[in-house]
Amino acid sequence: MDHFADRLRAAPQSRLQRSAAAAALELARELARWAQELETPGAEPRVMPDAGMFAAADQVSVAAHDLAVVLRSEDEVAEAVRLVEEAQKKAGI
């Protein structure tokens, strides 16, 4: 996750506009939703707002760190890593 966030921070604006920022926001929202479901099952998860393409890296970082705190198994960690790798491929960075 840190590698992906660093790549986003270093990406040119044109890359962020094409696909990287959207893929990052999608990932951040998914990780945040997952963390909220683990923390408060049954509660309606809040949606991470779109804070703009230049905030996407920080949103991924925050959501991933929040999720890491509440993951309960190695399988969940593996799934989180898979989601990050998939988003990085989708972002093209």
UniProtKB/TrEMBL annotation:
UniProt-recorded name of the protein: Uncharacterized protein
